[in-house]
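Hi support team,

I submitted a single chain yesterday and got back a structure, but I'm not sure I'm reading the token output correctly. Could someone confirm the output below corresponds to the sequence I sent? I've pasted both exactly as they appear in my results page.

Thanks,
R.
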Amino acid sequence: MTFLDLPAVSSAQGTIRLPGSKSISNRILLLAALAWGETRVRDLLASDDTARMLDALKILGVAITQTGDNDYWVEGVGGRFPNKNADLFLGNAGTAFRSLTAVLALANGHYRLSGVARMHERPIGDLVDALRGLGADISYLGNEGFPPLEIKPAEIRADKVKVRGDVSSQFLTGLLMALPLVDKDVTIEVVGELISKPYVALTIAYMEKFGVKVESTAAQSYFVRGGQRYQSPGEIFVEGDASSASYFLAAGAIGGINGGAVRVEGVGKNSLQGDIRFAEALEKMGAQIMRGDNWITAVAPRLSRLRGVELDCNHIPDAAMTLAVVALFAEGVTTLKNIASWRVKETDRLAAMAIELKKLGVSVEEGADYLRITPPASPAELKPHIAIDTYDDHRMAMCFSLVSLAVPVRINEPECVAKTFPDYFERFAEVVK
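Hi R., thanks for writing in. Yes, this is the structure output for that exact sequence:
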């Protein structure tokens, strides 16, 4: 097993230019592929998840040319993929798997979609049910309700569809992005509480950048008018990743002492990404936060430690993981609520986080949809030199790097960060002292 030993550090200070957003990168790639015209995509995230989307689109017949380290030309296919028969391996990239399932179900071709073992454990039945409600022909090639999938040509008949919103917002995102291929008016009704609403708003905003408007006709109801076509905006930039910003802002909130500060660039106060609100959570814990159009800075509290909070994390499901480790540096109990979606991510993050926090000597209560963390009297009382298992989950590795702001820690299989942030540990080392 590979591992990385992080020495104990006492402060954090510096500036980090963020990699591109994973969520925005994969949305833009798919929209550019479906559009009429050529799109120049700037600042695309270089990661395993975006590589899976790029590979899939090329297999489907989309011409994509890399013109720089993070720049690409995408020649749109006008909603019709040239390759009507393809096998696609999508790793553990949920953003790619869910959106491509929806789009290909309406693309009048024969496709097989698979991924790594963990992807085959991540539920997709609610999306498949919704697509079947439209008339799509989708079969499970393994366990009912889970990938891998087979998609065959079908006649899309319905003009209304229901989809559950309480498992993953990616199901609604996939449907919204696919519906312009139907060429008829379609209404989507979301059943149950819609989690991660900011990600849906992000999808709608980027669809509009490509010329397709989504109307919200009532609470949790969305209407896509027929006859709309994706049209290239010519050039589009990928914003810095707000989820990745959380680790560095947390480092600043914990270790930005004696005038030190950590600043992230590439995302700012007007970002559409939901995880931008992670900074608000840090403020509630007592951190000092400053914001600009394209930057955010975090500094530790001036006269005290951070303080524990009780927080509904529905709007920041990924960044909330970072708060679980920040809680170790706070006075008082921290309770993170409404995080049931953690259980269907790259691993069961609720269980994994509880297990690894307990290794450090922390009192943790794990509920069906919450995590309650009681930190030690001082962060210095955390158990040192603990080996943290990462479960092939990039966010587990990055979150627990923050433990080194108190005690030495070992991160097992650190290469898992390649999913979204391949050089994370090198960048982290730039700001901790």
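A quick pointer for reading it: The first strand starts at residue 3 and ends at 6. Let us know if anything else looks off.

Best,
Support desk
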